[in-house]
Amino acid sequence: MASSYSDVYDAWKQDPEAFWAKAAVDIDWFRRPERVFDPDRGVYGLWFTGGKTNTCFNCLDRHVASGRADQPALIYDSPVTGTVEHWTYGAMLEEVVALAAVYRDLGVRKGDRVIIYMPMIPQAAFAMLAAARIGAVHSVVFGGFAANELATRISDSAAKLVVSASCGIEGGRAIAYKPLLDAAIDISAHKPDRCLVYQRKELRAELHPDRDLDFASAVSEAKRSGNDVACTPVLATDPLYVLYTSGTTGQPKGVVRDNGGHMVALSWSMHSFFGLKPGEVFWAASDIGWVVGHSYIVYGPLLNGSTSVLYEGKPVGTPDAAAYWRVIEQHGVTKLFTAPTAFRAIRKEDPQGELIRRHDISRLRALFLAGERADPDTVAWAEAKLNVPVIDNWWQTETGWPVAGNPIGLGLLPVKYGSAAVPLPGYDVEILDDAGHPVSAGTLGNVVIKLPLPPGCLPTFWNADERFRESCLTEFPGYYRTADAGYIDDDGYIFIMSRTDDIINVAGHRLSTGSMEEICASHADVAECAVIGVADAIKGQVPAGFLVINANVSRATTEIEREVVALVRERLGPVAAFKTAICVKRLPKTRSGKILRATMKRIADCESWKMPATIDDPAVLEEISAALKARGYCIIP
Ligand code: COA
Ligand code: AMP
Asked: Does residue 522 share a domain with residue 444?
């Protein structure tokens, strides 16, 4: 089929408001928006002002009302507990209504914040939708973060309620969540009123008598009392959720998502980008703690009346590298979405793809890869082994849905390896040099998006309009700065190459080296430090920290290195995968004192590098190189 992409993109460009007004018909509104876009409200304008709606209603109630009550909405597949559960739209609505009643009885009201710190279990999705139902604002915190990170989020959002579980399960290990939650509440300046804790049989938690409530008993009680909770009408511009993501300091940024624009954009993406039909099975193998999980495990597929797979496991090791193929076969998955790192992990275990051939994956129509750069090798391998289109798509927590990708729903365009293909309607992507001038095709520069951002993108940061302006809108006036570097070729294909800030991508997880440096520097024996992202065959990048020890310290450096590794794990969490700390005599710096992190990275990655003209003492790079070599990293070419 010839792609209608160009026509659709041009139609959007000619009249963005007409385009989004048409897309908004996919959504049920309690009151239609007064304006499609109001440029005079919010930081750069707001979408669908005056409209009233409810995200839970659009995800569940309307589908139950229109005959989908018995269709699975969610398939929970957990190889780590040996569980498969099918939750129909009808059953899910019942759970969500009961949980919304529990929230309401605990005093949660429209606009109040609910922190959700949960593993990949259906109750996590119920917790999100129950908040949406009563107009409360949820903020999901990824389970691999430490107590300190959870505390920052509880405190910044001033959450009234925390919903959690007794444990997560990583591989074969039960990871207790409750001690982390208790520690976070101790640290946090703001204390939530109550905690609702889902007890898992793998590891039960002790509940705090005055503060904690058993999730399952509270929900059963609400069901017994027959409490019905109608969907609270909220403004399209009211916040649905806040998702904290790494910024360039230790203080994460609370990305706000509204209700109306979010639903319109996700709905459009489901049919026109992913090409997913209602009733089909979609699987985003991510975690609800990340934006991919919000958009494409929970909201997108449900808005579309599709079936979503919620998978509690890994691509390898639970139990083996055939896990993905087993799930695709068993549940009839038509579209799989994951991060390239998962495919690199699978390929390492099963380079010939023999395990794939043991499963019937014939219902699979496409693989979508995002979260990090999809290296051409991995894309080619997946194409050859799965025999379906492999679609790299580029976006961020801030945008909430793909900025660029090959829109299978509109008809596929030719594939170019290494490129996330073309901008989707809503996004006018340009490449600017550091002075803000457009560069010619094929030239690397700052990737920016012309304002206004489309529906679904963040209107601002939580309680921090000024920080949003400063970090995203000021450097290139009139544009949103993505903090990615890349280029656009003569055919309009976008190539995203790296970040322009200190963010690194570790196994598809977004982390700030700046916040790791803050933690390393807090060790009593560390005088100064630098953390860089070093290339890793599976995870894409992993952090490595270089530590300069205080002059008066005589302890063994290996001991300090071990302590610093433990400190990052304790403060940031295991997800940081910070396993390498190297004590060095000095850090390489420019004459004005700037640490030459980019050159250190090139040395560690075994790439060619030039002695920076501004370096203070060239000998330091030789020392760094020797230290890396001693740890098995590259030798200077
Ligand atoms: N709760 C508690 N701990 C968690 C966790 C969670 N939800 N998620 C990860 N962790 C821990 C892991 O157990 C591991 O701890 P360890 O150092 O004790 O082994 C650490 O955090 C790092 O986890 P991870 O980066 O996931 O590494 P891994 O070696 O366990 O698995 C991959 C590597 C590539 C298989 C895995 O990262 C993966 O499947 N990633 C791709 C999919 C994805 O989720 N992408 C996100 C955006 S789309
Ligand atoms: P997150 O906010 O966690 O989704 O991370 C967003 C960042 O991940 C982007 O700014 C990019 O740096 C990177 N990223 C995501 N998808 C891609 C992709 N398809 N290609 C290259 N980089 C990507």
From this structure: no
Minimum-distance ligand 1 atom for the alpha carbon of 577? 22
Regarding whether 190 and 81 lie in a shared domain, the answer is: yes
**What residue ranges line ligand 2, CB within 6 angstroms?**
245, 291, 370-374, 392-394, 396-397, 420, 482, 484, 496, 499, 505, 510
Confidence class for position 249, pLDDT limits 50, 70, 90: low
Query: Phi, psi at residue 489, to the nearest 5°?
Result: -90, 180
Q: Which of 456, 486, 516 is the last residue of a domain?
A: 486
Q: Note the pLDDT tens digit of each residue in 492-512.
A: 999 999 999 999 999 989 999
**Alpha-carbon distance 585 to 125, whole Å?**
49
Residue nearest to atom 11 of ligand 2 (CA): 372
Residue by residue, DSSP assigns 503-550 as EEEETTEEEEHHHHHHHHHTSTTEEEEEEEEEEETTTEEEEEEEEEE-
Task: Reply yes or no on whether the pLDDT at 105 is more than 70.
Answer: yes
- Token pair of 267 as six digits: 């709905």
Question: How far away, in angstroms, is 409 Cα from ligand 1 center?
Answer: 31
Same domain, 278 and 197: yes
The answer to whether the CB of 332 is under 6 A from ligand 1 is no
CA distance 494 to 125: 33
C-alpha span between 163 and 147 (Å, rounded): 15
The number of domains in the chain is: 2
User: Which range (162-166, 563-567, 581-585, 610-614) has the least confidence?
Assistant: 610-614
CATH of the domain at 467: 3.40.50.12780
Give the range of the structural domain holding residue 571, as residue numbers without chain letter.
507-630
Residues 82 and 196 occupy one common structural domain: yes
Closest CA to 586 of 626, 629, 549, 544: 549
Q: Which ligand is nearest to the CA of 541?
A: 1
Q: Which ligand is nearest to the CA of 566?
A: 1
